[in-house]
Amino acid sequence: MENFINFFKQNVSIMGILIVGIILIAFIIIILIVRSIRLKRAKKDFDALELRFTELKGIPLSFKLNKAVSLSKVNTNLKDDVVSFQEEYEKTQEGLKEYSVLLAETDDFIFSKKIKKANQCINQLEPVVANTSRIVLALDAKLEKVLEQENTQRESINTLKERFRVLKRELMEHRSDYHTSIENLDSSIKNIEEMFSIFEEWMFASEFDKAADKQMEIQVEIENLEHALHALPDYYQQLKGTLTAATDELTYLYSSSKAKGVYLDHLDIDKRLEVIRELLSESLAKLSDVDLPTIEKDIDDLEVRIVSVKEDIDKENDAYVQLHEKVSPLFERVKDLNKRYEIIRELYDRVNVRFGFDNWTARLEKDEVMLDELNEQRFRLEKVISENTVPFSTLFLSYEELDTMVQKLEIECKEMQQRLESACSDEERAKEQMIKLQLIVNEIRIKIEKNHLPNVSEKYDDDLIMANKHIEDIKAILLITPLNVEALNAKIEESIDYIYTLYNSVNNLVGMAIMVENAILFGNKYRSEYAEVDNELTRAELCFNNGQYTKSLKIAMNIIEKLHPGVYENLVKKGVDINEAIQI
């Protein structure tokens, strides 16, 4: 031994020893890490298998099987199925037991860190888990199918219970809103609770059909309770508030309308109001019994009756107001028609022959008959209104009938009066226009004579003769009886066109002659200085004396334009005097 040690010391260095030590330590660490990883993996697989075991154990097979056994006692068709279920249940228990034993062994091996044996147990567990899961889930599905009716009923009844709890809480929180109905509502609550108890008894006895019938009854009662809780406050508000106030307002409206003088006896308002009050009192009493359909019907009936009475009274009130607002103006229109008819009659008698109107005798007699009828109806309507024995809605119809007749006769009288007055105004207008035309013709003659225009063409003399003939024609038409108004108006228009055209022509001629004279007078200042000016002005004077005013003006302005360029433009276009034109 000593020889070995001595040999080792002689042949192995300290560095070599360290290297060997490090390798050994690293190898040991790797082995520990690998074991740790394998152990963690085994624990993870174990935890998953344990969780799956817990899930399978959590399925209430025993409870469901007992339910199925109870159900088979009342339903003989399920007996064979239940026996099969019991056999499968035993298999599930055996599988779960084996599952449990292997889990316990695996847990022990993991705890003692016997990883290899733990993995072997896990491998054994996998087929056991798969088989047990399949058996458990299959049995659970079969039991669920058998118990499906109960589960459905249980879900439905739980929903109803929740609705019932909400309604019960609502009633407790708002008891003051239900007044006299509270006792009946409490009774409904108690009745529903008893029905829930009976339902549970049938469910416990697995009498699902009877439980289903009871559930339907419970649902109906809860719906009725829900409707009552939601509707009753509104019904109290309508009956004690809205409808009672409407009845009081209706009574006041009736009293005030009668006091105003509105005739309402034909409507039996007193009797109809009494019926409304009695129905309102009966409906309030029915609220204690929570007879909702009857109360709803009574409320609808009350609303219809109240609206009907109000509409009838409003109709008479509106007729009363409209009649008193409109009847006086209508009566005034009838009076005006009487006056207008007298004016038409007088005017017709005066102008009938003069203007050759058609024979209006029959027409006037017909209008007179209508006017007499209007007067009679007016007096009759005025009398009935003062007596106040007929509904104003009926009187308003009589008013509208009278108004229609008045409108018709007003149109007739207006048309006749316009025709008569138009004929008279046409004659007066023609006379006034004839005087104006005479004055214009005289003015034309005076302008020609005053300006001593040489060699005025014979046309103007002929034109003056024609203008006077137009005036004489107008006089002739005015002297004829009956007067032909259309021919008169046509002649007036023709004469105006002719005479005004002549007047404008003479004005232009006189204006041009004055311009020629002014131009020659102005040019005379330069005759002694310029021979050309003297010659041109002499030509202008000859043309002027021959009546050639346009040519004369052109000659005179041309020679002046040479002396003063631009004078023509200023004179003609700007319309100024020749001296001013030269200065410009």
Radius of gyration: 64 Å
Strand content: under 5%
Q: What profile does the largest beta sheet have?
A: none
Q: Give the proportion of residues in helices.
A: over 70%
Bulk shape: elongated
In DSSP terms (H or I, runs of 4 or more residues), the helix count works out at 18
Distance between the termini: 158 Å
β-strand number:
0
Helix and strand run: HHHHHHHHHHHHHHHHHH
The parts where pLDDT drops under 50 for at least 5 residues are: none
Q: Structural class from helices and strands?
A: mainly alpha
How confident is the prediction overall: mean pLDDT? 75
Identify the notable features of this structure and list them briefly.
584 residues, mainly alpha, 18 helices, 0% strand, elongated
Set down the secondary structure blueprint.
Elements: H1 2-11, H2 14-58, H3 61-74, H4 79-111, H5 115-146, H6 148-173, H7 182-204, H8 208-260, H9 269-286, H10 292-355, H11 361-387, H12 392-450, H13 458-479, H14 485-523, H15 531-545, H16 549-563, H17 567-573, H18 578-583
Helix pairs in contact: 2-4, 2-5, 3-4, 3-5, 4-5, 6-7, 6-8, 7-8, 8-9, 8-10, 9-10, 10-11, 10-12, 11-12, 12-13, 12-14, 13-14, 14-15, 14-16, 15-16
Pfam family, one: EzrA
Keywords: Cell cycle, Cell division, Coiled coil, Membrane, Septation, Transmembrane, Transmembrane helix
Main location: membrane
Question: What does this protein look like?
Answer:
The chain crosses the membrane at residues 12-34. It comes from Breznakia blatticola. Among the domains are: 14-146; 451-583, no CATH class. Helices cover 87% and strands 0% of the residues. It has 18 helices and no strands. It has helices at 2-11, 14-58, 61-74, 79-111, 115-146, 148-173, 182-204, 208-260, 269-286, 292-355, 361-387, 392-450, 458-479, 485-523, 531-545, 549-563, 567-573, 578-583. Helix 3 (61-74) packs antiparallel against helix 4 (79-111) and helix 12 runs parallel beside helix 14 (485-523). The relative contact order is 0.04.
